[in-house]
Amino acid sequence: MFTYYDAVIIPLILGVVEVFKRLGMPSKFSPLISLILGILFGIFYLSVPMKEGILIGIMLGLSASGLYSGTKNLREKKEENDC
After folding, report:
1. How far apart are CA 16 and CA 27, in angstroms?
2. Whole-number pLDDT of residue 28
3. Which residues have C-beta within 8 Å of that of residue 29, sequence separation ≥ 6?
4. Which residues have C-beta within 8 Å of that of residue 35, sequence separation ≥ 6?
5. In a 10 Å sphere around its CB, with 0-12 CB exposed, 13-18 middle and 19+ buried, how is residue 9 labelled?
6. CA dihedral 70, 35, 40, 57 (to 10 degrees)
7. What element of type H or E holds 9?
8. What secondary structure does DSSP assign to 13-68, as a single string?
C-alpha cells in the first residue's frame, strides 16, 4: 500500500518535469508529463499489483501537477501584489 516514504516521489516528479522544461518542452505539457511519470513510478517502482500501481501513479502525477500549479499561482499573485 501507499506509504509516506513513497510521497518522496512527488518532488522527484517535479524535478524531472523541470528538467524537461529546461530542455525546451513547452510548459503546457507539464501536467501530462507529471501524470505519465507518476504512472511509470507507480507501475515500476512500487511493489504493488499493476492496477494498484496505476491508480497510485495517477494520484502521484496529479499531486505533482497540482503542487507545481499551486506554487506557480502563488508566486504570480505575489508578484502582482508587489507592483
Report:
1. 13
2. 87
3. 20
4. 58, 61, 62, 65
5. buried
6. 70
7. helix 9-22
8. HHHHHHHHHHTT--GGGHHHHHHHHHHHHHHHTS-S-HHHHHHHHHHHHHHHHHHH
pTM of the model as a whole:
0.76
56 CB contacts (<8 Å, ≥6 apart)? 2, 6, 42, 46, 48
Average pLDDT, the chain: 84
- Quickly count: other Cβ atoms within 10 Å of residue 68's Cβ: 20
Q: Tell me how far the alpha carbon of residue 46 is from its chain's centroid.
A: 16
